[in-house]
Design goal:
The structure is a homodimer.
Chain A (H helix, E strand, L loop, with lengths): L5 E7 L8 E6 L2 E5 L15 E4 L2 H4 L5 E5 L5 H4 L2 H5 L6 E3 L1 H13 L8 E3 L5 E4 L2 E7 L8 E7 L2 E6 L16 H10 L1 E7 L15 H11 L4 E4 L5 H13 L3 E4 L2 H12 L13 H6 L5 E5 L9 H7 L12 E4 L8 H13 L3 E3 L14 H11 L1 E7 L3 H13 L14 E6 L2 E7 L4 E5 L2 E2 L4 H13 L1 E8 L10 E5 L8 H17 L4 H17 L4 E8 L1
Parallel strand pairs in A: 3-5, 5-6, 6-7, 11-12, 12-18, 13-15, 13-16, 14-15, 16-17, 23-25
Antiparallel strand pairs in A: 1-2, 1-19, 2-3, 4-21, 8-9, 9-10, 10-11, 19-20, 21-22, 23-24
C-alpha cells in the first residue's frame, strides 16, 4: 500500500559534514540524490572511511528508480560502489561527475554492472514519478548542478553545494533564470547548503585568487609548488594561466592530480596550451625558476606528495632551497595539526611556505551568509530545509533565514534519519529512522562499531599488557606466567614492574580458588595503576594442560 | 673555566607552542626565564602533558642563580614542580603569578621547599651577574611582565607574551616609557612573541568585547553561560560589569574558575560588587533571565563543565531550553573537532550557542603583525630572536621584520636547543644541544618515548591479537592455542576468523622446527591481512611445560 505523501529522508549530510545522501519517496517510488562518504574524525581510531547507513533503501531496493548526482566530490559520490553493489537502478550524472564516478567504479570492478546516464545542466528527465530538472550552479568543481524535483506533491528545489560566483573561472555563473522560473511556478521546499552558515558576507570570486597568484609568481626565486585538492579543476586552470603569464612551464605531480587533470582535459573542462604543460621529468630537468608544479597534500596527509616532501621521503624529487610552496586550499576541521606540522617541516627544509591567512590563496566553494539569504529570496520556497553541515551550521542557517523574515515555523533544521512528510502543501515532521555511521575499515564494511573504536581508544591511551597462564586441572601453575606488553612503558623489559607483576600473579593463583581469570585481571590492573598511575588493557589467557 | 660570553639557550618555546623555558648563561651563572608545560598533540596518544627537556640545566644545577616568571599561564609556569624538584634556586614572580605558582606547588606538596620572592613591574633586582628590570606588558592575564636582562655582554629585552592594548580592562597599558628607555640605552637583542605572526593588523582591545557582550545580554531570553579559560581574569571582570549593567547576578562554576576568581579577588585584580556576585546554589534558584554563569570548557574538554552540560552529565545542574551558551575564547589548534562536537551537542539539547566567528566574543592575548613591527621599532635592538611559536610563526616574524627594514642577517629564527652566543656585541650561532619533548604520563616522567607512542599508534590503528602457545620440550603443542583480541573485529568471538587462525597456528607449529615465535607472528599477520586488510599488532607467548 503506497502513500501519496512526498517523503524527504536525509540519510546523510544533515547534522554532520561530508557524507551526503538524500531520499525522495513518492507513491512507492524512490529517487536518491548523491551517495557520499566522509573521512573519519580524529577520535575514530583506525577507521578508513565512513558511508551512510542506507538500511532504509536497502530494505526498499525494488522501489529505487534512480540515483542522481549533483557533482563529483567524494562527499557526494564516494559511497557509490557500496550502494550499487546492493541496489540496481540507473545512475544520472553530468560528464565530469560521470567521469569521476567511472574511476571509482572501475577501481572497485563494478563499472560493467551499472547503467550510467549522462545528463547536462538544463536537461529535464523523469525518474519514476519524479520530474528532475538539472540546473547549473557554481561550486569548486565544474559541472555541478542543482535539481528541481517535481512530483504531484509539489516542486522541491535541491540546491546542493553552490555559491554565486559572479566571475567564475569557467565563465559559467549559477543559473539565476532557472531559480526565478522555479520561484514563478511556486516552490514547496528548498534544500540548500549550510556549510558556511557561520561566515558573514559573500564568498569571494575565484577570480580574486589571480592577484595572490600574481604576487607569488612575480617574487618566487625558484620553483613554485602548489598544493591543492585533485578535484579543484578551476585552480588547475588558474595556475596554468598564471604560468602562461609569467613564462613558466607547469607539471602535475602524483596519480590523482595527473588522472583528474587528464580527464578534465579530455572532457573539455581544462584547456592548457601545449607549450605550457610539460611532464614531471621535463620539469625537473629545467631551471627551477621556469617551473610550477601542482600536487596534492594540502591537508598534511603523510603519504601525499607534500607530506613526503616535508619529510624528505619523496621518490622522484626533493625540495630545493629556494622553493616556494603554496597551500591553496582551506584546512578541513580536524586536520589543522597535521597541516601545521607539514608547514613547519617544509620551513625546516628551507622552503618558503605561503598559506592562509598569509595570502588569499584559496576561496571557498560554498555560499556564505548573504548568498544563502539571496538563494532563499530567489527561490521563495514555502519551507526551508537546511542541508550539508554540522548541526551548528543547520541551526545558523535557520537563524539567518528567520532574520531575513522567513517564518521560523516553516524551517526544519533536523538531523539525519528525520523523515519529513509533505501532503496538501503542508510539511509535517515524521518518524525518526535509525541512521548514522557505517565504518569502513580494511576489507570489512560495517562490522567495526563504536565498541571496537572504544577498545582502540583504551589501547591507545595506556597500551596493553598480556599475561599467559598455564594451569593443571587443580588450577596450579605449570610454569611461570609469560608477560608481554606494548605501548605501556618505555622499554618492553621494564623489568622491575614486569617481575613484580609476575610474582604478584604467582601468589594470587596459589591463593585463588575459581574465578582465576577475573581475579588476575582485577589484581594486575590495580597493581599497575598503583605503580604507574596508568590503566593499560590487561589481557589474560588460561591454558589448561 | 667559565666564558665571558653571554649564551641564550632556548630550552622550550621555539619551534613549538606552549612550553616556554629560556636559559641565560654568563660567567658560570644561569638565569632561567619561565618553566612551561604543553598539552599533547592529537598524535601523542595517551600522554598527559609535556615538559621541556631541561637536561642542560640539570647538569649545571649549581650554576642556576634564579628562575624568573613573566606571567601565570600554564605554558610559562606549568613545569615548575618538575624543575624545583631538581634545582634549588630562588623563584621570582609578580603577585598573581606567584599565587598561581603556589597553587601548583601546593598540589605537588613542594611549596615548603622553595624560596619564592614577589616582584612588581618596575622593580629592578639582581640574579647572579644579571640585572633584571621587570616592566608591565598587556596580555590575557593580569600582572604580566617583560624583562630587561643586563649583563656585561649587554642589555637583552625579553618581551615574552605581550600585546599593545590601548584600553586594557585593568586600565594598565604596556610600559612604552620603559621600552623607550631601553632603546636609549642600546639593546643588544630583543626576544619577542611570535604567536600571531601570521595575523595581519593589530589585536583589538579587550574593550571591544563589551559591544558583543551587550548584544548578548540584551537579547538572551534565559540564562547566559559563558565558557572561557580559568586564567582569563579580565574576561571575568568584563562579564561582571555586563551583569551589573543589565541587572543580572553572576556565579562562577567549577573548581578552577572559583579558585582563580577568589585569588584574583583577594589580590585585588578582580573587584566584583557584592550585590552582583552570588554562589552557584543561589544562582540556580533564581529566575533564569536574572543569571549569568561563568565556567571552563571552552576547548571542548569532555570532563569540563561545558563538556558535561553538552552530554547531560553535569552533577549540579542541566541545560535549560532558553540558555545562551557563549564560547569566549579562541580554539587551540588541534581542539577544533572536540569544540565543534561540543557546540553541536549543546544545540541538540536546545541551547543557543554563540561562538566565533558568529560574534566578536574573544580577542587574542598576543600582538599581531603591526604590533610586532612597533615593538621592534620601539626597542630598536641590534639582533632579533623570534620566540614563542611554531617554526612557521618564527619564520614569519623574521619575514615581517625584514619587510620593516630590519637586517635579515641579524635575525635568528632558530629552534629549541640552538645556543646563541653574544661576545663583543656580536651574535654567533653556537652548538645545538639535545632538546625536545619529555612526555609525562601517569606517575612516570620521561620514560614514555616516541617508541611507546608509536606502539600505541599501531594498537589504535587495528587493535591487538594475542596468541598463547603451550609447548613441550620437543616444540609440540600441549593444548589448543588460546587467542584473544581487542579493537580488531566487531565481536571478540568473530568465530570464523579466530577459528581459522587457530587451525593455521596448529598446522604451523606441527611443521615448524625452531623459530616458532617469529614464524607464528609472521604467518598470523599475513593471514589476518589477507582476510581483513587490517594489520593488528600480533603478540605471541610461548610457555614451555
Amino acid at each position: 500500500m503506497s502513500s501519496k505523501k512526498l517523503k524527504i529522508i536525509p540519510i546523510g549530510g544533515l547534522g554532520e559534514v561530508g557524507k551526503n545522501m538524500m531520499v525522495y519517496e513518492y507513491d512507492g517510488s524512490i529517487l536518491i540524490v548523491d551517495t557520499g562518504m566522509m573521512f573519519p574524525e580524529n577520535d575514530m581510531l583506525g577507521i578508513d572511511y565512513i558511508i551512510p547507513d542506507f538500511e532504509y533503501v536497502r530494505k526498499r531496493k525494488d522501489m529505487v528508480r534512480g540515483i542522481v548526482f549533483t557533482h563529483g566530490h567524494m562527499d557526494h559520490i564516494g559511497a557509490v560502489s557500496h550502494i550499487v553493489e546492493e541496489i540496481s537502478a540507473p545512475l544520472y550524472a553530468t560528464p565530469l561527475t560521470r567521469g569521476l564516478i567511472e574511476v571509482k567504479l572501475s577501481e572497485d570492478r563494478l563499472l560493467s554492472k551499472v547503467n550510467l546516464n549522462t545528463i547536462h545542466a538544463g536537461d529535464c528527465f523523469n525518474v519514476g514519478p519524479f520530474k528532475v530538472e538539472a540546473f547549473h550552479v557554481c561550486h569548486s568543481i565544474p559541472d555541478t548542478v542543482g535539481l528541481g524535483i517535481s512530483s504531484p506533491a509539489g516542486l522541491v528545489v535541491h540546491a546542493s553545494d553552490y555559491k554565486f560566483d559572479p566571475t567564475p573561472v569557467d565563465g559559467w555563473p549559477t543559473d539565476f533564470a532557472k531559480l526565478a522560473d522555479f520561484s514563478g511556478r511556486g516552490v514547496l521546499a528548498l534544500l540548500a547548503d549550510s556549510t558556511n552558515a557561520d561566515q558573514p558576507g559573500w564568498t569571494p570570486s575565484e577570480k580574486e585568487l589571480d592577484t595572490a597568484l600574481d604576487k607569488i609568481f612575480q617574487t618566487a626565486p625558484g620553483r613554485i609548488i602548489i598544493a591543492s585538492f585533485a578535484s579543484l579543476v578551476s585552480r588547475m586552470k588558474q595556475v596554468a594561466k598564471a604560468a602562461e603569464r609569467y613564462g613558466r612551464k607547469m607539471a602535475f605531480v602524483g596519480y590523482s592530480m595527473c588522472q583528474n587533470s587528464e580527464m578534465a582535459h579530455k572532457l573539455g573542462y581544462l584547456n592548457i596550451p601545449d607549450d605550457v604543460l610539460v611532464d614531471l621529468n621535463e620539469a625537473l630537468s629545467m631551471k627551477p625558476r621556469d617551473v610550477v608544479l601542482m600536487a596534492t597534500g594540502s591537508q598534511g596527509e603523510p603519504y601525499s606528495i607534500m607530506g613526503r616532501l616535508s619529510r624528505g621521503t619523496n621518490r622522484r624529487f626533493d625540495l630545493l632551497e629556494d622553493d616556494t610552496v603554496v597551500l591553496s586550499s582551506h584546512t578541513i576541521p580536524g586536520n589543522e595539526e597535521s597541516v601545521y606540522q607539514t608547514i613547519n617541516r617544509l620551513f625546516q627544509r628551507g622552503a618558503n611556505v605561503v598559506y592562509a591567512p598569509l595570502s588569499h590563496i584559496h576561496v571557498s566553494g560554498h555560499a556564505k551568509q548573504d548568498e544563502m539569504k539571496l538563494m532563499i529570496n530567489l527561490v521563495n520556497p514555502k519551507y526551508l530545509i537546511p542541508v550539508h553541515g554540522e548541526l551548528r551550521h543547520l541551526k545558523q542557517h535557520a537563524i539567518l533565514a528567520a532574520e531575513a523574515g522567513f517564518p521560523a515555523e516553516n524551517i526544519a533544521a533536523v538531523e539525519n534519519g528525520q523523515v519529513l512528510e509533505f501532503e496538501d502543501g503542508e510539511m509535517t515532521i515524521g518518524e525518526r529512522i535509525p541512521g548514522g555511521y557505517v565504518f569502513v575499515d580494511g576489507a570489512r564494511v560495517g562490522d567495526i562499531g563504536p565498541s571496537v573504536v572504544r577498545e582502540r581508544e583504551a589501547l591507545a591511551q595506556d597500551g596493553v599488557v598480556m599475561i599467559s597462564l598455564v594451569l593443571n586441572h587443580k588450577g596450579q601453575l605449570q610454569t611461570d606466567p609469560e608477560i608481554v606488553s606494548r605501548g605501556f612503558v618505555y622499554k618492553h623489559g621494564d623489568s622491575d614492574i614486569m617481575d613484580e607483576t609476575q610474582k604478584k600473579v604467582i601468589d594470587l593463583v596459589k591463593k585463588t580458588k575459581g574465578g582465576i581469570h577475573e581475579q588476575v585481571v582485577k589484581s594486575v590492573r590495580s597493581f599497575l595503576y598503583s605503580k604507574t598511575k596508568k590503566r593499560p588493557v590487561v589481557l589474560v589467557t588460561l591454558s589448561w594442560v
